[in-house]
Specification:
Layout (H helix, E strand, L loop, with lengths): L1 E5 L1 H9 L6 H7 L10 H11 L9 E5 L7 H4 L1 H9 L4 H13 L24 H6 L10 E4 L23
Parallel strand pairs: 1-2, 2-3
Helix pairs in contact: 3-6
């Protein structure tokens, strides 16, 4: 199948062609699942979210304005207000509290007192964004990106991206 993902859909599409096995779990939590002390329900929730393989039924992915490295707007005041308006279901809130007891953060990580929601996971300093970008996209599944360009040109010197629609770098 061909998957076309716009914005957050593009971020989700990225996960379909990323093979992390248990390495994402280990980078986020720091211990193997059997070494983590939390309820079985919360542990299974995090295992389902953090342990996965690329999907063999995906033949091509097209990203459209997908903030694969996050977007500054999510980390800014408007994103923080939007994030506070989203309420997690009880099962996620409980799992989030258990995760806070075991998780450690880097100095520049987005630090929350709850499980991250969709707005939080778009912030460039969100731990998930930083960690998932350490994993390569599939080398066997073609992928393409349609990105905005406000006349700044392409990334000719292989440094920070200069292509942007003003929201998604």
């Amino acid at each position: 199948m061909v998957v076309i993902g716009n914005s957050m859909g593009g971020c989700i599409s990225r996960l379909l062609i990323t093979d992390v096995g248990d390495q994402l779990w280990l980078k986020v939590i720091g211990k193997a699942p059997e070494q983590v002390r939390m309820s079985d329900q919360s542990k299974q929730l995090f295992k389902d979210a953090l342990i996965f393989h690329e999907r063999p039924d995906v033949g091509r992915v097209i990203f459209i304005a997908a903030p694969l490295r996050g977007t500054g707007m999510a980390a800014g005041w408007m994103g923080r207000i939007g994030s506070k308006l989203v309420k997690a279901p009880v099962v996620l809130a409980t799992a989030g509290r258990e995760m806070l007891d075991i998780e450690t953060f880097s100095e520049d990580d987005l630090k929350l007192q709850r499980i991250p929601n969709s707005d939080d996971t778009l912030a460039p300093n969100a731990r998930f964004v930083k960690v998932i970008n350490t994993f390569p996209l599939s080398s066997t599944i073609p992928h393409h990106a349609i990105v905005g360009d406000r006349g700044k040109g392409g990334n000719k010197v292989k440094t920070d991206p200069v292509q942007s629609d003003g929201l998604v770098p």
